[in-house]
């Protein structure tokens, strides 16, 4: 049966007016009186349902009248314009074929459910208004990111998910092993014999594709990765997941300024793309989730992001007179409360914080001339806090080697990374955008669990 997508009916209503169409979809709602009824039919192609009007002349009127929410149907009928009504048109039904029945205990009845409850039915929640909007925006934002980098000639690199090195040096990795945990092979001194493992060494799920992306940047100049990353961080917050997606561009012959300019352009491009291509979904978020969202996003596209050094940021926070739970001192890692205060109260827009103390940042960041700070950048945005972390990379062989020694790294694991500095190393930079945090920012949704189809967080991997 040739069907028309509901999206086409809304986009090209005039050309379908008065014509017979067949639509396939699920019953969102059904109201029946004695000899006629209305069905809101939803087909997933568009944010809105179509109104289907049916009457007792249908042979299966009685069966239709008994349908439960979420039954799936084919509806054939004439599209009639309904000027002045809530919806611009409706379908006057000639025939309905029942494809699949639904039972009366369907959990998503026509009422507002809390996001917490919907998390317990992750297999059904994509059918709710909120999640249909979230996941369409997620899909569009992913596309916009690829489009942005593609238009600028970046090469998309698929970095490995199983790695032998810790890209962040933070030790928050999930081990990948085929060893029998109840019967581990041991070396003579009693340690686990990783040579016996599948890869002949210890391996983990990647925390970042950056180190591998750097190898490609030093071959292609401008590259990016976009893939899943894994962190065994035991932080049970609304912004941390154990499995999340990251976008990591890496650019050669580029410094921190170039890096910030790229990040700002990318953010504006993605926001504009989503505003333009998902107007119904964005209006929904503005109405039901955060009623300053559209104004905020529009402002961001048209204004410049703020820039501040870490040292200045610490001064601003201290001078603010605000009592923070975690006191501010030069040298601390900025906490969410500090990040949000900076971006929401002081700058009131996205702001790059740069040049952090070397002690609190990753080993690969370029040491500044003051010998105290590194050329790092975090982008903070209102409502979310840190959304991007990046830096100019240490391209000087000896400086990097010294840093790794100081941190007690096993240099053998990074021999290939060091060689990049030996064979035509150049200044280069990059950053990681947390994709889920970007979706939180775009939708106003406050919990990372509600922007991932099947979230993995501490103690939770049900679906
Ligand atoms: O600041 P991070 O740790 O930076 C890196 O991994 C670098 N290697 C990136 C690079 O320079 N190529 O993480 C980058 C971003 C954060 O700003 C945050 O948005 C997100 O990744 N992120 C998380 N998102 C969800 N859950 C977590 N547990 C996250 N950890 C980081």
How would you explain this protein's 3D organization?
This is Asparagine--tRNA ligase. It is found in: Cytoplasm. It catalyses: tRNA(Asn) + L-asparagine + ATP = L-asparaginyl-tRNA(Asn) + AMP + diphosphate + H(+). This protein has helices at residues 6-11, 13-16, 61-65, 115-119, 129-151, 210-220, 256-277, 279-288, 293-302, 310-319, 336-346, 397-406, 415-419, 435-443; strands at 20-32, 36-42, 50-55, 72-81, 89-100, 155-156, 162-163, 175-176, 203-205, 222-230, 243-252, 306-309, 351-357, 373-381, 385-392, 428-434. By secondary structure, it is α+β, with helices and mostly antiparallel strands. A hairpin with a 3-residue loop joins strand 1 and strand 2. It is elongated. The protein starts with 5 loop residues before the first helix and ends in a 20-residue tail after the last helix.
What is the count of β-strands? 16
Give the radius of gyration. Answer: 27 Å
Assembly type = single chain
Low-confidence runs of at least 5 consecutive residues: none
Distinct helical segment count: 14
The amount of helix comes to 25-40%
Give the rounded overall mean pLDDT: 95
| Outline type | elongated
Q: How are helices and strands ordered from N to C?
A: HHEEEHEEHHEEEEHEEHHHEHHEEEHHEH
Structural class: alpha+beta
Query: Cα distance, first to last residue?
Result: 34 Å
| Major pleated sheet | 8 strands, mixed
Cross-sheet strand order for the largest sheet: 6-10-11-16-15-14-13-12
* Beta content: 15-25%
| Ligands and ions found | 4-amino-1,4-dioxobutan-2-aminium adenosine-5'-monophosphate
Pfam families: tRNA-synt_2, tRNA_anti-codon
Catalytic activity: tRNA(Asn) + L-asparagine + ATP = L-asparaginyl-tRNA(Asn) + AMP + diphosphate + H(+)
Subunit structure: Homodimer.
EC number: 6.1.1.22
């Amino acid at each position: 049966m040739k069907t028309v997508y509901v999206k086409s009916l809304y986009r090209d209503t005039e050309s379908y007016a008065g014509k017979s169409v067949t639509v396939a979809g699920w019953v969102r709602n059904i109201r029946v009186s004695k000899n006629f009824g209305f069905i809101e039919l939803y087909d997933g192609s568009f944010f809105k349902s179509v109104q289907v009007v049916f009457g007792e002349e249908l042979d299966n009127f009685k069966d239709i009248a008994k349908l439960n929410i979420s039954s799936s149907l084919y509806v054939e009928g004439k599209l009639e314009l309904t000027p002045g009504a809530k919806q611009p048109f409706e379908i006057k039904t000639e025939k309905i074929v029942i494809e699949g029945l639904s039972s009366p205990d369907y959990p998503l009845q026509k009422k507002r459910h809390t996001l917490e409850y919907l998390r317990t039915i992750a297999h059904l929640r994509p059918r709710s208004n909120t999640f249909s909007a979230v996941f369409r925006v997620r899909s569009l934002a992913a596309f916009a990111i690829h489009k942005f980098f593609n238009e600028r000639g970046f090469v998309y690199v698929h970095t490995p998910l199983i790695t032998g090195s810790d890209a962040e040096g933070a030790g928050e990795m999930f081990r990948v092993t085929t060893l029998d945990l109840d019967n581990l092979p041991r070396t003579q001194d009693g340690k686990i014999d990783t040579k016996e493992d599948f890869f002949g060494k210890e391996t983990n799920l990647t925390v970042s594709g950056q180190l591998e992306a750097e190898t490609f940047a030093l071959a292609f100049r401008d590259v990016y990765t976009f893939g899943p990353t894994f962190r065994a961080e035991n932080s049970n917050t609304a912004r941390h997941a154990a499995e999340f997606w990251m976008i990591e561009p890496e650019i050669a012959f580029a410094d921190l300024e170039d890096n910030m300019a790229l990040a700002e352009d990318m953010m504006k491009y993605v926001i504009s793309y989503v505003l333009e291509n998902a107007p119904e979904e964005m209006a929904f978020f503005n109405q039901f989730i955060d009623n300053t969202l559209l104004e905020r996003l529009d402002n961001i596209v048209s204004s410049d992001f703020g820039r501040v050094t870490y040292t200045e940021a610490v001064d601003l926070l201290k001078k603010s007179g605000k009592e923070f739970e975690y006191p501010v001192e030069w040298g601390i890692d900025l906490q969410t409360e500090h990040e949000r205060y900076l971006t929401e109260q002081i700058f009131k827009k996205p702001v790059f914080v740069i040049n952090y103390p070397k002690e609190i940042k990753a080993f690969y960041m370029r040491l500044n001339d003051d010998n105290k700070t590194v050329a790092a950048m975090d982008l903070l945005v209102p409502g979310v806090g840190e959304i991007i972390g990046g830096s100019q990379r240490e391209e000087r062989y000896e400086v990097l080697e010294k840093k790794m020694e100081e941190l007690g790294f096993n240099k053998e694991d990074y021999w290939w990374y060091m060689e990049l500095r030996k064979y035509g190393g150049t200044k280069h930079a990059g950053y990681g955008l947390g994709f889920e945090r970007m979706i939180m920012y775009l939708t106003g949704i406050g919990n990372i669990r509600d922007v991932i189809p099947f979230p993995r967080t501490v103690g939770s991997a049900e679906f």
